[in-house]
Amino acid sequence: MKPLKIGITGVRGIVGETFTPELAVGFAQAFGTYLDAGRILICRDTRASGPMIRSAVLAGLLAAGCEVVDLGISPTPSLQLAVSSVGADGGIAITAGHNPLQWNALKFVRGDGLYLNSSQAEELLDIFHQGEFAKATWDTIKQSISFADPIGEHIQSLLGIFAVDAIRARRLVVAVDCCNGACSLLSPRWLESLGCEVLEINSDPSAPFPHAPEPKPQTMAQLCAIVKAGRADIGFAHDADGERLGIVTNLGEALPEELTFSLATEIRLRKKRGTVVTNISTTHAIELIAARYDSSVIRTPVGQAYISEGLIEHNGVLGGEGSGGVTVPEAHLTHDSAAAMGLILEHLAQTEDPVSELVQEIPRMATLKYNISVEPNRLYSVLQQFRAAVEREDLEVDSTDGLKVMLPDGWVHVRASNTESMIRVISEAKENTVARQLLDWARDRIKR
Amino acid sequence: MRAIPTLKISISGVRGVIGQSLTPTLLTRFAQAFGTYTGSGTIVIGRDPRTSGEMVKQAVMAGVLSSGSRVVDIGMCPVPTIQLQVRHGQAQGGIAITASHNPPEWNALKFIGPDGLFLDAGQARELLDIYHQGEYTKVTSADIRTVDEIDGATDLHIKAILDVLGPLPKLDRPLRVVLDSCNGAGSLVGPKLLQALGADVVPINVTPDGSFPRPAEPLAENLGQLCAAVREHGAAVGFAQDMDADRLAIISEQGVPIGEDYTLVLAALYVLGRERGPVVANLSTTSALRDLAKQFDCPLFLTKIGEVNVTDMMQQQNATIGGEGNGGVIYPRINFARDSLVGMALVLHLLAETGATVTQLLETLPSYRIVKEKMVCPSQLIPVVLKMLRQEFGTFPIDTRDGIKVTLPDGWFLVRGSNTEAIIRIVAESNSEARAREIVSGVYDQVARCVNN
Hints:
The complex is a heterodimer of chains A (448) and B (453). Chain A has 448 residues and is of the alpha/beta class. In chain A, 37% of the residues lie in helices and 23% in strands. In chain A, the strands form four sheets. Chain A has a seven-stranded mixed β-sheet with strand order 1-2-6-5-3-4-7, sandwiched between helices. In chain A, strands 16-20-19-18-17 form a five-stranded antiparallel β-sheet, with helices on one face. In chain A, strands 9-8-10-11 form a four-stranded mixed β-sheet, sandwiched between helices. In chain A, helix 9 (258-271) crosses helix 12. Chain A is globular, with a radius of gyration of 21 Å. Chain B is of the alpha/beta class. Chain B is built from 14 helices and 20 strands. In chain B, a hairpin with a 5-residue loop joins strand 19 and strand 20. The interface between A and B is large, with 37 and 36 residues.
């Protein structure tokens, strides 16, 4: 079966297979209908399929009577900020984030700049499936207009929340790998406005992705080399749309993506104690860090919308996920790699600690990840069989999202991916060998 | 009662009403079918200024891109500009987004082949088969091609005209021309072309914002404002375009519409004076064109009604000029398309080089009047009507290629069923309007008796 995911994080698929222009047109019409034909912002990442999907989305939104404001190539967080700043009713980001080149997706943003939550996403799906969309007539149909500089506005708003003078005074040397994604237009400009000396690579939005747009040590070799050669204070790696952030230390070590949020948590809680919000799949190092600063951790299901809602509900001081997404609430309540960079650079500037030393302060756990491809129509039943197997063994479980099993030496989390047709298994322990045993324990109980 | 459907999918393309039948999904599918049909080549896209134009264009671009085709977007422009760009740019096809003279709630796609001509009936059926079959070429991300926005298509069009005809000869006083573009696509090219030719242009209705200052069809009854402006400005001529600038109507220096049939006649008068050769028009064209061709000793070929039939015959006969009686002038040396801009340039050259007024030129031509009627008629009765007329008029020369055309000693009439509605059309021509009306009413009564029996 060809992969297509229609769910809480939007609609996502492979262009030329399941992700067709009709599908994009239909979802745009449904979203326009859902928002009662208001003003809607759109942006896209740099994928080659972007202009095709953009045209389909524009057609669907205009047909539903929306006034469309086109941001062009722009990181998703820039759109999310612009939605609230221009008083739009919502937005559609055309990006498959960290997925490979052949994918694309629509992500739906509501009027407050946050993603639709699960019940709103279900309402949208009902409208899509029902197929009865609002239709503008010749005398009510609108045109699209373009938005001058959403990225400039994004930078302006970030400049207001960090100790910019301190950062500028340090003249930090920062290497950045934009993966030729949407951050090519944001990240070097943001760093320059912070007075950094920027060593940029892969910042051509018209070029294809040089590697998978997923910031992980496996994709950061080139960045490590630049950091070393340029004696940079730090290196940053982006996904395609500006949500996830990877880090390379001043010694040229690519940090596992789990450490991005751990590092951000350490930095944030040193300055401001409070509640940290993360998902149940993220490393338990967060609890260890929070304990040092007398702070608490809230765990949500996996998905940005849940982190945003958790931050609102608990008035959190930081949100984030093990995949490298970090939310700095002063900026906005959504993952924003530029805001995460600001947080880290501010710390480097104010403390003069090299990153490599700060990393020593972070409890390092052995976190292992394993994906099992499953036919889309079998995802739920595979998960149920695993649940039944675990229940027979009378173990402590957490059912916030999928099934997280708490074992004496660590934990293992098994859930269906929101974005791909696979079961994700994550285990964590202090020792790598134990984490490996936990992973195998879970795999033995997952019957495809 | 069953609602009248507003969607028309036919060999002429796909046409419908915005907010009802012409949905973005339908448009995207049609564009995918066309991309599939053209083998994922380069496709030129242009549109008229209707308010729905952008929505339709985006839906079309999405479909064309997903089929692996490259898009050349030439923006808002006349249909003949798109046709010219397809040929000059060696594209594999074009899509014109326009409902030409239909009211503002309509829009449509018209499909153009690599030769710059609209798809003929056979080609259009192939496209429709692909559309209905629903299996379109879909390319993956690596094979998706780009959208190239081109600004210069209208300049190319103006240049193509000037390259062949040149500017007008220098006069003591340049010809003053009032141009009414109906706020259509012609607004973007018409005034520029007329200036480039050296005319003194008074433009009206040249704001292409999607509003319709008058009904778009350039019929005499829709051109009151233009006629008044011609008189007010003491202009030598008035020109009226439709929304997509393929058809042209002419107003004399006295502020009187000369009749759409005479647009082609005046254009041919100029062209045949420069170069002789075959002339092609449809069966419903004024006899003035026949007389003119005879005067220049050129053969005239009449075809079934429909632009494609005319262009097919023009290619077969290697025609010098051709067109339709509705104001569509086709001059292949510049553009193999009905082109109001070419029509304007030809007529202005005629005026400038002869020094005559429009009225004086018409006086040199035989005068005919065409009268048109229509009657509701169930389509199954049409053959019965035609058979009756064949018998009744058996002693006169008869042409049955498209309905029936009977040549009388002092005129002719044509009776044919409509392709699109359950009506029968009756057209007659004679030297006087009274006689033409007499012919029509006589035939009308006979047809009515036959239908009502």
